[in-house]
Amino acid sequence: MTGMPRNSPWGEVQQGEKLIGGVFLVSTASHGGIMVRKDAADFLSPEARKIAQSERNYLCFEEDCDESVAIRELLDKKLWELPSRITDKAGYEDSIDRSLMQWHPDYWQARQRTIAALSGSAEEAEQKPMADARKDIIFRDADYEMMFRIKDGDSIKITVAYDGEEIVRKCRWLDETHLNVDTTCFHVDEFMERQTRVGNKYEPLPDQKPKLDVVIVEPGKPPRDAEIPMSRAAIRDIIGGEHEIIMEDKCSALVIGVGGNGTLLLFGIEGGNLTSLHPFVAQTKKRELAALAAETEEKAAPTLADRLEAGKAKAAAHIPPDIAATRQRQAEVG
């Protein structure tokens, strides 16, 4: 515990670990986080400093929502490496990024802008292709060996043995062993067995441009499924300007416009990158959005009392002035 802080914003420090000089991972009886001594905090970005809680000589990042900021800063600046006890390092960093997108979207956007600036101009960053985080769909041959793979949302060509007709079918990833071919769900082996049994051949459709399946939510309209090009320009065109990413949960993200047209996009999320929204998640989200819209509309609808008052006011507006004056005098004298 040499050099370790004795107290924290969360109580007396019971256990601690020095990450680098002046940076400590601490725990108390009920909570914990990362404490950065102010004289060792030069590595923190201005955005990270805004999130930290100042406690005497330390900047403190509590473990639930803020600790990931300090860890991200240490890793980005290569000041610290994940310890050997963390075996899935990529998965751990992925969880850090998801936490940042959910709890600190402003910090995440600032970090992304900094990365883009360091790697080139904003215009150049805009032209760079989006990371293709779509899942792989595996197709097998009659010996149950991998025949080829395509990306989630790509299409295959089925050549019918009977008459040589060529049919193009879009495929969606469901899980490691299941897929949708058009709208029909198959186990990967079941699909192969059916095609083999009738002598059909199937192959990937060549030269496919990557696209993403999303849900578009436009103001005043029901949410709808859509397929869009996998590009930042396509996103910008739909939402009417620049955008921010807000984590919905571990498998979906909401993309909102900054001063745009009010349109929202629901994407999938994989490794911190936008990807196609899973078909089942898309249906769930659409039901949730429809229910929310109905609830909002119900709350905004006028009550019976409101309608009666409006009716009285409307009727009063059509009463001749002399009759209205007579009724007023009668009301005054009881």
How many structural domains?
4
Q: How large is the count of helical segments?
A: 10
pLDDT averaged over residues: 85
Helix/strand order, N-terminal first = EEEEEHEEHHHHEEEEEEHEEEHEEEEHHH
The secondary-structure class comes to alpha+beta
How much of the sequence lies in strands comes to: 25-35%
Largest sheet report: 6 strands, antiparallel
Task: Give the overall silhouette.
Answer: flat
Low-confidence stretches: none
Give the N-to-C terminal Cα separation: 86 Å
Radius of gyration: 29 Å
The beta-strand count equals 20
User: Helical amount among residues, as a percent range?
Assistant: 25-40%
Account of the 3D structure:
36% of the residues lie in helices and 31% in strands. The protein folds into four domains: 118 residues, no CATH class; 69 residues, no CATH class; 88 residues, no CATH class; 30 residues. Strands 15, 16, 17, 18, 19 and 20 form a six-stranded antiparallel sheet that branches. It is built from ten helices and 20 strands.
List the helices and strands and how they pair.
Layout: E1 7-8, E2 11-12, E3 15-20, E4 23-27, E5 32-37, H1 46-51, E6 53-55, E7 58-62, H2 67-76, H3 89-103, H4 105-119, H5 122-127, E8 136-140, E9 146-151, E10 155-159, E11 166-175, E12 178-181, E13 184-187, H6 188-198, E14 201-204, E15 211-217, E16 224-229, H7 232-239, E17 243-249, E18 252-257, E19 264-270, E20 273-275, H8 279-300, H9 304-316, H10 321-333
Helix pairs in contact: 2-3, 3-4
What would a concise description of this structure say?
This protein is an alpha+beta fold.
What are the defining features of this structure?
flat, six-stranded antiparallel β-sheet, 334 residues
